[in-house]
Each structure stands twice: as structure tokens, then as C-alpha cells.
Amino acid sequence: MSGGGIRLIPIKNEDVVKVVVVDPSLIVPGDIIVYKQFETHITIHRVIHRHQEQLASGNKYTFKTKGDNNDYIDTYEIHPAQILGKVIKKI
């Protein structure tokens, strides 16, 4: 179940999805996010873990993801500045 109460079935490479801009603090495990992995590479993966660190300047978030069609968890962390939006439905 995603944070917005919408359960999304796995996303495939050829799927078309609707994406909305969302505050990274509202992203939870199970949500599918769209992010810039490299300057020219956009990725759509499911959040499997959210790490929250409380700092004097506010909360800091990082996310671990996994592609629905991958057998492995991504080795890198996603930072809020990389996130372009959250998938809300398959079209």
C-alpha cells in the first residue's frame, strides 16, 4: 500500500504512468517515484526504505529503491533533490 492509499501493480518498461510532484517527506515505502539517476537518465523505481535523520536545520530524508522488474535492491540512495515526482496511476 502506498502512502496515498493507492496500491500500484508492478510497473513495466512499456507502461505509461501519471506522475505528480510531491513533498519528499510524504514519500513512504511502497510508493513508486520518478527520479534523476544521472543528468540525462530518469528512473522509475519503488521505494523500499525511507531513512529520516533529524537535524537542527530540519529533517533529512534518503530513500532506497528497487525496480519492480529487478531481482536486487539498488545499491545507491536517492536524495530529495533527485526526485521529480510520485507515480499515482498506470494509464
Short description:
By secondary structure, the protein is an all-beta fold. It is built from no helices and five strands. 0% of the residues lie in helices and 47% in strands.
Question: What keywords describe this structure?
Answer:
SH3 type barrels, 5 strands, disordered N terminus, mainly beta, globular, five-stranded antiparallel sheet, 91 residues, single chain
Structure, explained:
- With 91 residues, the chain is an all-beta fold.
- The protein is globular.
- It has a single domain, classed as SH3 type barrels (Roll).
- It has no helices and 5 strands.
- The chain has a 5-stranded antiparallel sheet, with no helix packed on it.
At the first level of CATH, the class is Mainly Beta
Tell me the fraction of residues in β-strands, as a range.
over 45%
Q: Helix-strand pattern, N to C? A: EEEEE
> Widest sheet: strand order?
1-5-2-3-4
Net shape: globular
| Largest sheet properties | 5 strands, antiparallel
Architecture, according to CATH?
A: Roll
Please give the alpha-carbon distance between the first and last residues: 19 Å
Radius of gyration: 13 Å
Please tell me the total number of domains.
Answer: 1
Q: Total number of helical segments?
A: 0
Mean pLDDT: 88
